[in-house]
Amino acid sequence: MRLFVTGLPRVGKTTLVLKVAEEMQGLNLKIGGFTTQEVREKGRRVGFKIKALDTGEEGILAWVGSGYPRVGKYVVNLEDLTHVGVSAIRRALKNADLIIIDEIGAMEYKSREFAEAVEEVIKSKKPLLATVHRRYAGRFKNFGTVYTLTLDNRETIRCEIIKNLKTALKF
Predict the structure, then answer these.
(1) CA angle, corner 140, sides to 80 and 75, nearest 5?
(2) How far apart are CA 44 and CA 38, in angstroms?
């Protein structure tokens, strides 16, 4: 079971995966992987943080500034992406009932280790829930179900994803 969620920025992709993770944890399932969230200062987005779901460890995924590698105005922090994100994926492959990757996109693909970890997850038998940047969604249509989230359908899609995961995980 591989479920991919895409959609416009700020439509609720991360909120959806956090709600699904909470519900699955309520069934005593082990959730692994990571989430990303915007960092805002004075109402403006200045970066993204990354957080491991199993340990709570946090890092900076990207920030506004100069440096390399870049995606638009952001500098990607490969060290924290690897230390927090890739490590969380690898632990999830060993220990989790459900793997969550939030997000798969240009920033994350600046890391070869990240790309390899995503490939390992897709080849594995573990259930996966991933958010995917809209420009990357087409890459995953042959590996599972791709949902396009909107403000109007996000609750319906959340319920459908939970139902599908409960079935796959035998609940």
Answers:
(1) 30
(2) 10
Q: Read off the pLDDT of residues 92-119 as tens digits, 9 standing for 90 and up.
A: 999 999 999 999 999 999 999 999 999 9
Residue 168 CA from chain centroid, whole number: 19
Q: What share of the chain is helix, strand, coil (3-state, %, to 5)?
A: 40, 30, 30
How many Å apart are CA 55 and CA 159, to the nearest integer? 26
Q: Is the pLDDT of residue 131 over 90?
A: yes
Long-range contacts of 70-78 (CB under 8 A, 24+ apart): 71/106, 71/107, 71/110, 74/47, 74/48, 74/107, 76/107, 76/110, 76/111, 78/110, 78/111
